[in-house]
Specification:
Blueprint lengths: L1 H19 L12 E4 L5 H9 L10 E7 L5 E6 L2 E6 H6 L5 E6 L7 H10 L18 H12 L9 E2 L12 H9 L9 E2 L2 H5 L4 E7 L4
Antiparallel strand pairs: 1-2, 1-5, 2-3, 3-4, 5-8, 6-7
Length: 215
C-alpha cells in the first residue's frame, strides 16, 4: 500500500511539473505553436468544452511564432483577418498560461515553408463561417494549411468532423444557434475542420511548457 501511494504521489508531481514548466520567450523559435485560452464569452466556453486539448486543457486560439529575437511576433487569424501580432500584445489577451508546442525533430525541415506560407496569407479575411477551403482562415485552419503546403500538398495535421453540440447531447449550444442564424447559415455540423485543442494533441509536436501571461 505504501508503494502505491508513493507511485500516486510521483504521478501527481510529474503532472504538476508539466504544467509548471515555464519557457522564456527568447527561447521561442519560428514555427512554434502557441495555444491560448482567451475569454470571448459563451462562444469561447463552447469551443473549449468540445475541443479539450493537451492534458485536458481548454484552448480557444492558436498562433504561430514567425520572428524571434529582440521583438517576437506571431502570425494569427483573428477577427481582423490574418495578421502579425507582437508576442507581448498576444499575451495580454491570455486568460492563463500559453502552451508552447514545437514540431518534433524529424519534421522541423517543414517549418520554414510553413512560416513563409502563413506570412503570405496576411490580409486574408477571418473565416467566420468555419468552413474549410473557402478562401478565408480561422486560427487553426491557417496552421493546418501552412503545414499542408510545407508538406508538398499532403496532409500533415488532421481534419476531423466538427461539432457544435453540447457533449453527450443532440442539442446545439444556444450561442452557435444564434451565431449561425445571424449569418443566415446552416450550422456546419460534421463538416471537416480542426481546432486548437486537437492540434495540441498531435503526435507530430512536442509540448515544451508554458509561457506565463503578461502581467
Amino acid at each position: 500500500m505504501k508503494q502505491y501511494w508513493i507511485l500516486i504521489t510521483l504521478i501527481a508531481l510529474i503532472n504538476t511539473a508539466t504544467f509548471a514548466t515555464e519557457i522564456n520567450k527568447q527561447l521561442l523559435r519560428s514555427g512554434d505553436l502557441l495555444f491560448q485560452n482567451i475569454e470571448c464569452g459563451s462562444m469561447c466556453d463552447a469551443i473549449r468544452e468540445v475541443t479539450q486539448g493537451y492534458e485536458g486543457r481548454g484552448f480557444s486560439h492558436v498562433a504561430m511564432v514567425v520572428q524571434t529575437g529582440k521583438e517576437v511576433y506571431v502570425i494569427e487569424a483573428v477577427a481582423a483577418g490574418v495578421k502579425q501580432t507582437r508576442l507581448d500584445s498576444f499575451l495580454l489577451r491570455s486568460h492563463d498560461n500559453v502552451l508552447v508546442g514545437r514540431l518534433k525533430k524529424p519534421y522541423r525541415s517543414l517549418t520554414k515553408k510553413a512560416v513563409l506560407f502563413s506570412l503570405q496569407q496576411q490580409g486574408i479575411p477571418y473565416d467566420d463561417a468555419f468552413l474549410y477551403d473557402n478562401g478565408k482562415y480561422y486560427c487553426s485552419e491557417l496552421v493546418y494549411d501552412a503545414y499542408l503546403y510545407a508538406n508538398g500538398g499532403k496532409p500533415f495535421f488532421e481534419l476531423a468532423p466538427m461539432t457544435f453540440k453540447q457533449p453527450g447531447s443532440e442539442q446545439y449550444y444556444p450561442v452557435w444557434v444564434d451565431y449561425f442564424d445571424s449569418k443566415g447559415q446552416d450550422i456546419p455540423e460534421g463538416q471537416p475542420g480542426c481546432n486548437p485543442g486537437g492540434l495540441s494533441l498531435s503526435d507530430k509536436i512536442d509540448i515544451l511548457g508554458n509561457l506565463a501571461p503578461a502581467p
